[in-house]
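Notes from hallway chat w/ T.B., transcribed later so I don't forget. T.B. wanted the structure written out for a chain they're using in a teaching module, and asked if we could keep both sequence and C-alpha cells in one place. Agreed to drop them here.
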Amino acid sequence: MMEILDANSLDLMGMKAQGKYVEYFITTVEDWRDKLGRVDIVVNEWLKVQKNWRILVNIFVGSEDIRQQLPEDTKVFETVHGEFT
C-alpha cells in the first residue's frame, strides 16, 4: 500500500511538472496531492499506534507480574483490547 501511495504521489508531481499541459487540471492535481499527503500522514500514525499497541499487549497480556502490580490498568487495557480484537 505504501509503495502504491508513493508511486501515485510521484505521478502527481510529474504531472504538475508538465507545466502548460496540466494547467487546466492543476486544481485537481493539487487536490489529489493534498489528499494523498493526508493519507500518508494517517497511515504512518496508524503504524506507530500498532507498534505501541504490540508493546502494550506484551506488557499487559504477557506479563503476570505487571498484571498483579497494575490490576486496574490491566483491566482497562483488556477491555479496550477486547473491543479491537
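Follow-up for T.B.: The longest helix spans residues 26-60. Might be a good example for the class.
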